[in-house]
Amino acid sequence: MEYDTVREVDPEIADALSGEVERQQNTLQMIASENHASEAVMEAQSSALTNVYAEGYPGARYYAGCEYADEVEELAIERAKELWGGDHVNVQPHSGTQANMGVYLAVLDPGDKILSLDLTHGGHLSHGHPANFTGQLFDVEQYEVDAESGYIDYEAVKDKAEEFDPDIVVSGYSAYPRTVEWEKIQDAADAADAYHLADMAHITGLVAAGVHPSPVGVADFVTGSTHKTIRAGRGGIIICDEEYADDIDAAVFPGAQGGPLMHNIAGKAVGFEEALDPSFEEYAQQTIDNAKALGETLADHGFELVSGGTDNHLVLVDLRESHPDVTGNDAEEALEEVGIVLNANTVPGETRSSFNPSGIRAGTPPLTTRGFDEEATRTVGDLIAQVVDAVAEDNFEEVRDDVEAEVAQLTDEHPLYE
Ligand SMILES: *Cc1c(COP(=O)(O)O)cnc(C)c1O
């Protein structure tokens, strides 16, 4: 990926694009919401479909010239149905947040009530945070994870639903390492006669592969991200029953968006095709096995994991007990310096702030894409522990070069794009 054509026009951007490929090749990406899309997906995303206006839906567009756009969108929808099931799929949301917006616009009015997980406990901005349109337009009440166990307290969610009487209950999370029990959230929604939006953003690929239970057929609406545990490029999707199909489609376009990003929908179609290959299930299972190996390694080094471990692709580390003087940002910055890229994250019962929280979140989807197995992932866990311990003991400079060299060896052994 040399970006020669870009370089002829714009060397500054070409340098940045090549720099980004090198950064991804030469560092370990452990942002739990990221992955590495294939060259096929990226090629589709940079196709001539970026030039096409395809407002509307396949077969019913507002513009001429949509023959190939129709073909691409129909294939994306068909493949999504094969991956997740469901009567109706909308592949147009530009992002996961836009997918959620589509659902809210379809069934809520301003002032209606949302019950969702608190952001600092693992929820998402688009579930009712005051800085997001959801917090501004709707009346939001939040549930939490159990302070002791770190698991969703489903009984408490149901109690809150009975008390608050929401119009919609939202499940699906950004920093929750455990299996989501969709039926139990459905019980809570039923108790309030509310809709249930299952936002499977992080685990969209795990659900497709059948290594996490599916919310399709349980919740009224399922939204997903196409760039996290599935490698279909940036975007969102909505899955729902036929009875909501028209409302959802109208809420996405013209409700929330204009013309669909047809080039990204082509990327989704290609990524979905890749995920229909039987090898994708192995990938998804390996992603989980690697996350478990990472969690066990960190626990062996004395780190405290929220909920004590993981069932999915991520671990959430609470640094407060093991490393009381190291903040999430301190850890994130030191790790980035040695080429391990993850993020500081709030933890349940956060005592610092969202800007400098007490935890770190690490995911294994990108490492697994480049071929990491449990053994290689354990090595990464050892390196993370070594760096954070060194920060705590004020001798980071002493370990830095050694860790950097080990990261370089791991990235060399696991080339990203051959
Ligand atoms: C990542 C995520 C989204 C989507 O985010 P976008 O950045 O808008 O694609 C939605 N919900 C949850 C729970 C997420 O973790």
In words, what does this structure look like?
The chain is α/β, with parallel strands linked by helices. The protein folds into 2 domains: 43-276, Type I PLP-dependent aspartate aminotransferase-like (Major domain) (Aspartate Aminotransferase, domain 2, 3-Layer(aba) Sandwich); 279-413, Alpha-Beta Complex (Aspartate Aminotransferase, domain 1), CATH 3.90.1150. It is built from 16 helices and 15 strands. Strands 4-10-9-8-7-5-6 form a 7-stranded mixed sheet, with helices on both faces. Strand 2 (56-57) and strand 3 form a beta hairpin. Helix 7 packs parallel to helix 8. It starts with a helix and ends in a 5-residue tail after the last helix. It binds pyridoxal-5'-phosphate. Pyridoxal-5'-phosphate binds next to helix 5.
Main sheet attributes: strand count, strand direction, barrel closure: 7 strands, mixed
Q: What's the CATH class of the largest domain, please?
A: Alpha Beta
Helix content: 40-55%
Shape: globular
Whole-Å distance between the termini?
10 Å
In order across it, which strands form the biggest sheet?
4-10-9-8-7-5-6
